[in-house]
Amino acid sequence: MNTELGRCIFWGMSKVFAASLIVVILLLFGPAIAYFTDNRAQVSVAKSSRQAAGLAPHPSTETGAVIQAYAARTYGWRGAFAVHSWLAVKPANSQSYTVYEVIGWRQMRSGNGLAITETAPDRYWFGSKPKLLLDIRGAKAEALIPKLDVAARAYPWATTYRAWPGPNSNTFVAYVARAVPELGLELPGLAVGKDWLSRGVGFASTPSGTGWQLSLAGLFGLAVGRAEGLEATVMALTVAIDPEDLAIEIPGVGRLGL
Predict the structure, then answer these.
(1) What pLDDT, on the 0 to 100 scale, is given for residue 175?
(2) What was the pLDDT predicted at 43?
(3) CB of 118 within 8 A of CB of 96?
(4) Average pLDDT, consecutive stretches of 10 residues, N- to C-terminus, the chain (258 residues)
(5) Which positions ≥6 away from 113 have C-beta within 8 Å?
């Protein structure tokens, strides 16, 4: 009887191990492809491009208010897993943009990672070209800029930074998006940290404000929303199915679909 029980336990543990191994392989397959196809890994930080990408309207040609959100692959091996995201605003008739972001090395040096600076909104993130996630202009942007500014300055984890699973730069942008749901900002699955709600179990709206999510310290969770579709978070990596856009999201690779 003991022998039979031992065999059952052994086979049960073997099946769990095999299933866990398959999940790990599937989660790391995309990041491995991203890492070995990214030539930025061969370029030093000092030589990495920080030029403007030409995605933001110039203040001389766009006199109205502008709100934009961007994301770009992080530098080094982390770029195989995640993007860095940030927000930029320009009030009506302003000749400059204000960029809101949380930066890890800023937190390590000064104790506060929140950076609010006047700079080009669409700069490369150390060699990685940014992708435009959100573009709101005119009267709506003018009305939302003060709300965005208040939410950004109220970010509660500015003095705490963890690249994985959060809170990090993507946690910040997701926090602001939830505080100002009129933005309708949908963050990509590669924005690791966007699902970090607390150190324990958290429940909140999705960043787009079109659904709800449950998260365990940003490591595991589920989200359902009109913009996000169905998302599952495993070890802070996101797998998603978006029926509305006929797309899927895979860790390391990002969005695939029509």
Answers:
(1) 98
(2) 58
(3) yes
(4) 61 55 70 78 68 96 98 91 97 98 95 97 95 98 98 97 96 98 97 95 96 96 95 94 90 87
(5) 102, 103, 104, 106, 107, 158, 159, 161, 169
Q: What is the rounded CA–CA span in Å between residue 100 and residue 118?
A: 9
pLDDT of residue 246: 86
Q: What is the pLDDT of residue 11?
A: 61
- Cα–Cα–Cα angle for 136, 137, 140, rounded to 5 degrees: 85
CA-wise closest residue to 187 among 208, 165, 212: 208
Element (H, E) at 36: helix 2-36
Look up tokens 């890492």; give the residue: 35
Spatial distance between the Cα atoms of 225 and 95, rounded to a whole number of angstroms? 37
Q: Which residues of 157-195 are buried (b: 16+ CB within 10 A; e: fewer)?
A: bbebbebbbbbbbbbbbbbbbbbbeebebbbbbbbbbbb
Nearest Cα to Cα of residue 148 among 70, 66, 212: 66
**SS3 of 247, please?**
strand
